Amino acid sequence: MSFYNEEAEMAVLGAVMLSDKAAQRLAPTLKPEHFFFEGHQVIWKSIQVLSAKGSTVDLVTMRDTMLQHGTLERAGGVGYLVRLVDDVPSAASAGDYAQIILEKYARRTLKDRAEAFVKCCEKSPDLEHVLATAETLTDGLRVGIRPVVDASDVLSTLGKSTGVTGLSTGIQFIDQLSHHGGMPCAEVSILGGQTGAGKTLMATQITAHDLRQGRAVLFVSLEMTASQLLSRLMQQLSGYRSEYDAKQAGDLASWKEAAEIIHTTRLLIYDSVLASDPTANDILAWLEDEHQRDPVHRVFVDYAQKLTLAGARGAENWDVQRRISEMFRRFAKASGVSLGMLSQVNPTEHGWSLRGSKEWENDSALTILNTLVKSNRDFREITAVKNRHGACRKWDAAIDQRYLTLVDRGGFL
């Protein structure tokens, strides 16, 4: 578990320099010590100075204030301030970024206090003193941010938007669904379906497309092993199940080309078989650490309904799913990745519903449902909905058995 999030800290600092109103909202809550990096602490102190005066918080006023106090170079110079503003994903999401900062600070503080408490237990002969110390472990720690967004914050974000809000999937049906141009970034998308309907196949097909584009992908597998996933990806990239099959077909070059793609791009697989009952907390910690180490473009988690929450024994399933869904949604917004969650579905009177809880479906920006077609084992009906209020669109698809990919059914009829 990481005890800091550099991207969230940078995003908050950039957001408040885009909107001084965001600084006014967050200044009473965030303190310099909440930031892990010293340079960020220095920058936040200057933001608080300007906010306390009622002055505008922007690049010009920040540079002047930090020059006056002799702190500009300690914070990385003007170039770093410009980078913070240019890289902020969304000024309107400043509260989400601040929430992450407070949670990380709370973890660091609890860790320090717990270590001190252990020493107290070992050395103090007075049990009352030990118990009194235990009661103070969480004193002063809070993680709540006022859920207030100013319209001008949103406007400033729209003003600097490039219009690119999604990642192409290589599947035309999905890429043409909306202005996103694919699965949306900084949002959660759901890939649902019955057992064997093709959820994982679709996710690995999209992953293969990403790798061809040179994108970095993290794939969390709670069902298939890393070896099984990689075998499928190699078939989708080369058209062959094995190197032997490629040799027999006289097309070893295709296999070697696929292997070169795997070797030269960043694909990390979280193999739950190698972990000991990982929780959603464990997986999110890994995702945050890897993304912070080297930013990724897309994340898939297969399957959502198997996720559990640390410390939630006895809680109602709907509440556990709600909390897990919120955790992953917050990660997607803070990191800007395109996050796909795979989940099985249950038949209902009116169609299908995600297994376990509606919380995931309610929070998703895009839901894609794979349904088996009884007349042919290779046929699928793909239904997609943009958020829970959007209209449904359908695609008659088939599985190309050579490449294990979903294609238009027209070529198979």
Give your account of this protein's structure:
There is one protein chain. The protein is of the alpha/beta class. It folds into 2 domains: 6-158, DNAb Helicase, Chain A (Orthogonal Bundle); 166-412, Rossmann fold. The protein contains 16 helices and 12 strands. The protein has helices at residues 6-18, 20-26, 38-53, 59-69, 77-87, 94-123, 127-135, 151-159, 172-175, 199-212, 226-238, 243-248, 252-264, 280-293, 317-335, 359-363, and strands at residues 166-167, 183-184, 187-193, 217-221, 267-271, 298-302, 338-348, 351-354, 366-372, 379-386, 392-400, 405-408. The strands form 2 sheets. Strands 3, 4, 5, 6, 7, 8, 9, 10, 11 and 12 form a 10-stranded mixed beta sheet that branches. A two-stranded antiparallel ribbon has the order 1-2. Strand 9 (366-372) and strand 10 form a beta hairpin. Helix 3 (38-53) crosses helix 4 (59-69), helix 10 (199-212) crosses helix 11 and helix 14 (280-293) runs parallel beside helix 15 (317-335). The longest helix has 30 residues, at 94-123. The chain starts with 5 loop residues before the first helix and ends in a 5-residue tail after the last strand. The model is unreliable at 157-164 (pLDDT under 50).
